[in-house]
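Before a computer can learn anything about folding, someone has to put a protein's shape into writing. The outcome of that step, for a single protein, is printed below:
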Amino acid sequence: MSTTSTPKIDLYNQDKIIYVGTANFNKNYGVGQRSSVFQRRDLDELFSEIQNNDNIYLETSQNYEGVEELIGKYATGKLPNKIAIKISPNISDTVISVISMVKKSLDKVGQKSFQSVLLHNPEILSHENNVDIVHGLQQCINLGLTKSIGISSYKSQQILEVKKRFPQFTNFQINENVVDQKNYKNKDLISLSKSGNKIFVRSIFLQGNLLVNYSDLPFFFTTQKEVFENFIKLCKMNKVSQIKCCLDYAKQILWSSGIVVGINKFADLTDIVENFSSAIKVNDFSIDVLDSFYSDPRNWIDL
């Protein structure tokens, strides 16, 4: 497997985007630290690939300590309009402070403009300063600081409600995977996508837990063991790897504009793109799914 460049996305998915997440670029990420720190020696290769591949982008957050500075160190000026940033304004923020927040992140990552700015905490829109926050984000578009704005969410209903209130939001993220399936055929999300909005799928590997044997799962998944066992049986029945099955599922989500994935090294990206670009082998995902409590990673911290 070559580590010099990744394959081009196949024609079926030519408009699909792969965002490389950066939560583990400076420390372990995920439950049980399933993800290891990204290998620094691969950063130049990764950023070069993102720079030259129309289908691969970078996703980061102001909450990922030290990551923005790391991107700036290795990729200054290389990734204009190729980075999505998640920000977390608070109830005291104003139009000016939101703009300043985005400018500060641009300075850190060494770019002139983001592809998208997303609210990492969309619940902030329920507070009195929501108009100021949204106006600040809109001004970021007007000033050329970003091409689009939106939210990162765990609930489809929240995305739909936010879109109704603030139609200028056009870019969204939501978690979905083969052992969740709550939004697989969500007609409202399909309609939203068809009307020109971009919706990206997070957690397609369930923070890496769909890529291991069920015997290696965190203890709190014990009651959900059968779900994972059946998923692995599905993979074996179709003679595909677990990563291929997850990606086949993601490719067939009609409302999806692409995926957000975490990698530990550049070769992982090559593996993901190869599997994402290859012909679909699994199209029947009739398996039991996780209890809704366990499919939401926000609940794991208390277990």
Summary: The mean pLDDT is 91. Strands lie at 17-21, 56-61, 83-87, 116-119, 149-153, 171-175, 198-202, 258-261. Residues 95-109 form the longest helix (15 residues).
